[in-house]
Write a structure and sequence with these properties.
single chain; alpha+beta; 2 domains; two-stranded antiparallel sheet; 2 helices; 7 strands; 14% helix; elongated
Length: 152
């Protein structure tokens, strides 16, 4: 896990706290956009003053989101109410590949995997310890309906 930072209000300043991979506080400094009490605060720029505008711009000051400085990305560590999805956008779990595939197929007006695949029968596979690829022992043909929409 990466080193993460969060940001909270502290009066008229901000407190940026650094957490290690066990989510234990490693350091915490008060800062503004022009000053920081960290050891590098005497320099023209330090990482805390570099991160502060990012927290402010995303409105993540005091939220459950943390910033991964090394990766340059955001991580949600504490449950907040997630913002509503835009109209027409559907959240699909990556744990269910068929649902993910069908959501993408629907968005692209392609054929979806039917709920009850009656045409698929007798498919078995095995993986031998000596072989790295699965061996398919029997396959029946799969018939799927045509596209629901015509492409232009």
């Amino acid at each position: 896990m990466a080193i993460l930072y969060n940001c909270k209000h502290d009066g008229d300043q901000y407190r940026i706290t650094k957490f290690n991979e066990n989510l234990e506080v490693e350091s915490s400094y008060l800062c503004t956009e022009t000053e920081c009490e960290c050891p590098a605060g005497v320099r023209p720029m330090c990482r805390h003053r570099e991160m502060l505008p990012r927290f402010i711009a995303r409105d993540e000051v005091g939220s459950g989101w943390m910033y991964d400085y090394d990766r340059g990305g955001w991580v949600q560590m504490f449950e907040d109410d997630p913002p509503p999805l835009p109209e027409g956008v559907v959240a699909v779990s990556l744990e269910y590949p068929k649902e993910l595939y069908n959501a993408i197929a629907n968005a692209l007006c392609e054929t979806v995997i039917p709920d009850e695949p009656e045409a698929v029968t007798g498919v078995a596979s095995s993986l031998n310890s000596e072989e790295s690829e699965p061996v398919v022992t029997q396959v029946s043909t799969v018939t799927t309906p045509g596209p629901r929409y015509k492409r232009r």
